[in-house]
Amino acid sequence: MRDRFDMTVTYAMHNALRRELHHFAHATARAHPDPRSVLRTAAGWELFRRALHTHHSAEDDALWPSLRRALDGRPLDLTRLEAIEAEHSVLAALLEAIDQALVDPDVGPDLFGELADSLITGLRGHLRHEEEAVFPLVQAVLGTEQWEHFGRVHTQRIVADAVRILPWLLDGAAERTVAAVLTQLLPLSARHAYAHRWQPAYAALDRWSTEGDPSTTRP
User: Are 116 and 28 in contact (CB under 8 A)?
Assistant: First the structure.
């Protein structure tokens, strides 16, 4: 059965976050003895944090409240949504803790490694949980107006930093996904800038400080 709502942008964001978790894990694992040495200067960490906040804040502000109202009288499904909202809070706290650990001389590499592992495990599980438990509820019970409202908010927050976030979002995506996302998010006049300025500038970034590391290949 075909989905009621086109979630191409949302799934593209999830896949981009999974991609960056892989690079984050590799970058911190190879930075022995102190994994913080990579993240303190890595453009990839800042892009990852910004994109995750952009996505989660749009869901928190414009999707979950509408879904909560649509699930009134369905306590088991509301519990699923509440679990997702709690995961957002935990992940936000982990990001803050990692940022604090990057500048706190009293935090050793072992504790930092635990925080990094918690973020990797927690976000991977969250993305899967959201897709399996909550996205079907969105398709089943949310109204078209409410979904379109979320789409507008999500788009506005991505486009506010489109020069950086869009090339990051579409890195390694299938051609049909790239075309669909650009069509949804950018006017035709801006797609030339994406292809000829934004994407080449992003491609030139060594976002996880991997130059000179033979074990790393860029996706």
Answer: yes
